[in-house]
Write a structure and sequence with these properties.
Elements lengths: L12 H4 L2 H5 L8 H11 L3 E9 L5 E8 L4 E8 L18 E7 L4 H10 L12 E9 L4 H9 L6 H7 L1 E9 L9 H7 L7 H25 L9 H4 L3 E4 L5 H7 L1 H8 L1
Parallel strand pairs: 6-7
Antiparallel strand pairs: 1-2, 2-3, 3-4, 4-5, 5-6
Helix pairs in contact: 3-8, 5-8
Length: 265
């Protein structure tokens, strides 16, 4: 039987390689997030909260511990007050609502102290090869406060708002692969589970999404302990994580033209 391409014979790659058409493509089994989640399910990774130290307004630190068959990782989350006038989603901003790092191993008191001092500084801080990812995110102006208000009154958020906005927190950078002193990918792929591109980044973003839910529920509870509720699972499933940059994908696409060609065809 003769093999045929799903691309119409009259359609050229020039027609497909446009922002509009590429942006409309659905995720596939090759997608970074889906391949990451398959590995987590197949290998039965476990994620637990080992530190939850937030005040009533949601400022402080949270640490999630990820246990895999190969080793343990820690995602550190730092939340701080940020005036609305100072909030910017541009990559050149120097202040953020939240900051994160994915660390190899359990977090010690000494390492926690070092990272608590440096991670909120982002590019201006000092990192080590023990850190795989450096990231930061801002609260959604349209959705974050609205969801907190609903939950604190005992109401569920409008699922249409979730579908329209899509996230509670929006990352403005997710750095990895040797930037700013982080572990280089040539080392990461040997000493960790993350032997494929963007696996560590996807894990970090996945847990940041979970943190965003824990954050709004925590603030809502402290505003009204007697009436506050948590987001129902069927509504929670409509939440993702925002991303305002994606600059790291540019060199990946340039460096791997044959891979992109296979994906498109």
């Amino acid at each position: 039987m003769k093999k045929t391409s799903h691309i119409n014979k009259k359609t050229t790659l020039k027609d497909i390689m446009t922002l509009e058409r590429m942006g409309a493509r659905y995720p596939s089994r090759l997608s970074f997030s889906r391949s990451m989640l398959r590995a987590m399910v197949r290998e039965k990774w476990r994620i637990k909260t080992v530190i939850f130290d937030l005040d009533k307004e949601g400022y402080g630190s949270v640490v999630y511990e990820v246990t895999t068959p190969k080793q343990i990782y820690s995602l550190l989350c730092f939340s701080q007050y940020l005036d609305d006038k100072e909030r910017s989603d541009r990559v050149i901003a120097d202040k953020w609502d939240t900051a994160y790092t994915l660390h190899i191993g359990k977090i010690s008191k000494l390492e926690f102290k070092r990272l608590k001092k440096n991670i909120p500084l982002q590019e201006a801080g000092r990192n080590s090869p023990k850190e795989l990812i450096l990231s930061r995110a801002n609260k959604s102006v349209r959705l974050f406060e609205k969801v907190v208000d609903c939950l604190s009154k005992g109401n569920q958020p409008d699922i249409n708002d979730f579908n329209k906005v899509g996230y509670l927190l929006r990352t403005t950078a997710v750095y990895g692969s040797g930037k700013f002193g982080l572990s280089d990918f040539s080392r990461t792929k040997v000493v960790t589970n993350f032997n494929q591109p963007f696996r560590a980044e996807m894990l970090a973003v996945y847990i940041i999404r979970e943190f965003s839910i824990h954050l709004v529920e925590h603030i809502a509870y402290n505003r009204n302990p007697k009436k506050a509720v948590k987001i129902k699972n069927k509504i929670k499933q409509h939440l993702g994580i925002g991303n305002s940059t994606g600059l790291g994908m540019a060199p990946f696409i340039i460096k791997h033209p044959k891979l992109i060609h296979k994906w498109i065809r």
